[in-house]
Write a structure and sequence with these properties.
Elements lengths: L16 E2 L2 E2 H14 L14 E6 L6 H5 L6 E6 L6 H14 L3 E7 L10 H10 L13 H13 L10 E6 L6 E4 L3
Parallel strand pairs: 3-4, 3-5, 5-6
Antiparallel strand pairs: 1-2, 6-7
Bound molecules: zinc ion.
Zinc ion binds next to loops.
Length: 184
């Protein structure tokens, strides 16, 4: 397990087992406390603010806190890089056509892991496991440019009903501030 397709990690390969059980046990315990204090908010599934946010999965990006969002306000669609893949378009299409959202907010961030990955990652993976992944790595060098391209992909998708309010930003993980990217 030493190929360059792997990102170094401090996490033991068998999962983070502590005296209190696995990390998943910890999450399930937390859920028990959450549910104990939970009351049915009586909402339907349509986002209150009619907005879908597409963002990187980065652990430093707390979307609800950073954007002042509350439960029920928005759809959040996250993946590595916050890149607009076919599957993101699938989710946005369902978000708009079945659940009434109109606006799209795209968020990349500073210090993204995707900036240091290239399609070599895919090649190395193929060499290691003997199978070429069907997906692209979607790595990028210039985060601003990738946001621009993402805006363009959403705006030109034939599947979406609403493409007039699509804006893109870079979240600074050191300051917590969003910087808006001017579309191409
Ligand atoms: Zn990222």
């Amino acid at each position: 397990m030493t190929t360059s397709a792997q990102i170094p990690s401090d996490v033991p390969s068998e999962g983070a087992i502590t005296a209190d059980g696995t990390v998943t046990d910890r999450l399930v315990d937390a859920n028990g406390r959450y549910a104990a204090a939970f009351t049915d908010p009586g909402m339907d599934a349509r986002p209150v603010l009619h907005v879908a946010v597409v963002a990187c999965m980065d652990a430093r990006l707390d979307l609800h806190a950073a954007l002042g969002l509350e439960l029920g306000d928005c759809h959040t669609i996250r993946n590595a890089g916050g890149v607009v893949t076919d599957d993101v378009i699938r989710s946005l299409t369902i978000s708009q056509r079945a659940l009434g959202t109109r606006s799209v907010v795209l968020i990349h961030h500073t210090g993204c892991g995707l900036e240091s990955l290239t399609e070599e990652f895919r090649h190395d993976l193929e060499m290691e496991v003997g199978q070429r992944p069907s997906w692209a790595v979607e790595g990028f060098r210039d985060v601003d440019q990738d946001v621009r391209q993402s805006i363009q992909k959403v705006r030109t998708s034939p599947f979406l009903l609403h493409t007039d309010d699509v804006r893109g930003f870079v979240f600074d993980v050191k300051t917590g501030l969003l910087r808006e990217i001017t579309p191409a």
